Amino acid sequence: MTRRQLLHSASAGFGTLALSGLLGLEQARAAATDPLAVRPSHFPARAKRVIFLFMHGGPSQIDTFDYKPLLKRDHGKPLPFARPKVVSSETFNLLQSPWGFKQYGQSGAWVSDLFPELTKCVDDLCFIKSMHGSNSRHGGALLELHTGSDTFIRPAMGSWITYGLGTENSNMPGFLTICPTQSHGGANNFGSAFLPAPYAGTAIGSVGIPARDARIPFITNTETPRAIQRKEIDHSQKLNRQQLALTGPDRALEGRIESFELAFRMQAEAPELQDLGQESEATKKLYGLDNPITEDFGRQCLMARRFSEKGVRFVQVSHTYKWDQHEHLKRDHAQNAAEVDKPIAGLLQDLKSRGLLEDTLVLWGGEFGRTPTAQGSDGRDHNPEAFTMWMAGGGVKAGLSYGATDDYSYYSVENKVHFHDLHATILHLLGLDHLKLTYKYAGRDFRLTDVHGHVVKGILA
Q: Could you tell me if 401 and 129 are in contact, meaning their C-beta atoms sit under 8 angstroms apart?
């Protein structure tokens, strides 16, 4: 054996060693045979699956869920304390929200007039009002939100979760992303990086493609009978395995072998799951498919429910790239909220009526928030120092507002929650210890939270 072959074989074995420590030898052997097979969690889980509603661009917490009455009083005045470094041009004086706020539900949660439909669901929501990140630029912030690192290419959150738990549906990928962004990190936001290829997110459509046209490509074959396809795949796989025997462990080749098998199995289920024609007219209306304003995002949310219901472990839907209002805040935030409000409320109501919200964790948010100071006459700059995200279902406290920002929502000041803490908490709700979910690569153990992160116990039910 040459030195190159020895290093090749040794490095390819790191994943098996890591998985052996995580799951035990027998589970590791099973995972090596089927990387997406269901695997036990570290401890009893509250959630089985995740739906991530990603608002690309950075929604303004000040204009959505973080009510600040002092902004109205001090509108037009200078910020009374030092501002952090921001990404764009200098901001000006304080800018009040153009929307009114009211309290809703038994929880008394504050919600702006932007989200009239979501107000019906506030008692199911757990608001985290003290989020903060490390990067004020879209590219770095998106990567940090999705992968835990704003500087290096790392596996996405959905990849880590499917690596740890597998998927409950062997005919579907464990991680799907619907109409994902192609900018600000692009595919790195849903890639598996150094994790094996089966844990990467499978994209359905992309930004700019209407949701009605978003499909898993080449999922049907009307020309070749299924039995013939099976023989063709068996022959190609035989050749692939012969090549693997000659070269030794090869993660790229092993990934292709598994992808062919999964693609063949997907033909049996994916076309039906993507067919929304099976849903009742009442359900379609619940998601807003009867309205051209809400139809596109409503389709994404309805697909997410269908995929989650059939055992897909992690589904992301993206409202891409619309929330970056450096100007025209009143016009564009109003349009954005109108597109997503009813579909999100419909998703929550539908999950709850089907008994799925109990073990489905729904996450909403963007890569950062906005400044309470104005940029130009009608805009807000990026603000990673303070923003709001919310969760629902899956073991979080319903009707809770956790953490707080300062009087103007420039800084998170009470019970601060970093992206690392958010990731640790999501894994915890899924029954995974973020300290133990590791993968050995390049001589060290990696994890989603790197060397950071604490479970936010205050939001756990």
A: yes
Residue with tokens 């501002």: 83
| 414 and 344 together in one domain | yes
Region 435-458: mean pLDDT is 96
Buried b (16+ CB within 10 A) or exposed e, 320-348: bbbbbbbeebeebbbebbbbbbbbbbbbb
Measured CA to CA, the distance from residue 6 to residue 124 in angstroms comes to 54
- How far is the C-alpha of 402 from the C-alpha of 458, rounded, in Å? 8
Q: Which residue has the higher pLDDT, 12 or 237?
A: 237
Q: Are residues 183 and 200 in the same domain?
A: yes
Query: In this structure, what token pair is assigned to residue 236?
Result: 């190609």
Res 16: pLDDT: 46
If asked whether residues 168 and 251 sit together in one domain, one would say: no
Percent of the chain with pLDDT over 70: 92
My answer on whether 155 and 250 are in the same domain is no
Structure tokens at 83: 């501002």
Burial zone of 251 (CB within 10 Å; 0-12 exposed, 13-18 middle, 19+ buried): middle
Residue 361 maps to a domain: yes
Q: What is the pLDDT of residues 313-368, one digit of tens each?
A: 999 999 999 999 999 999 999 999 999 999 999 999 999 999 999 999 999 999 99
- Read off φ and ψ for residue 98, nearest 5 degrees: -75, 0
Cβ-in-10-Å burial (0-12, 13-18, 19+) of 69 comes to: exposed
- Domain total of the chain: 3
Give CA–CA dist 70/337, Å, rounded: 24
- The 10s digit of each residue's pLDDT in 18-40 is 444 544 444 444 455 688 999 99
Same domain, 316 and 413: yes
Tokens 């499909």 belong to residue: 215
237 part of a folded domain: yes
Contact (Cβ atoms closer than 8 angstroms) between residue 388 and residue 65: yes
Task: Kindly list the distances between the CA atom of residue 430 and the CA atoms of 131, 179, 395, 450, 460, in Å, as whole numbers in the listed order.
Answer: 21, 25, 9, 18, 12
* Of 422, 426, 362, 352, the residue nearest 391 (C-alpha): 362
Give residue 312's pLDDT. Answer: 96
pTM, whole model, 2 decimals?
Answer: 0.89
d(CA 227, CA 53): 39
Confidence of residue 397 (pLDDT cuts 50, 70, 90): very high
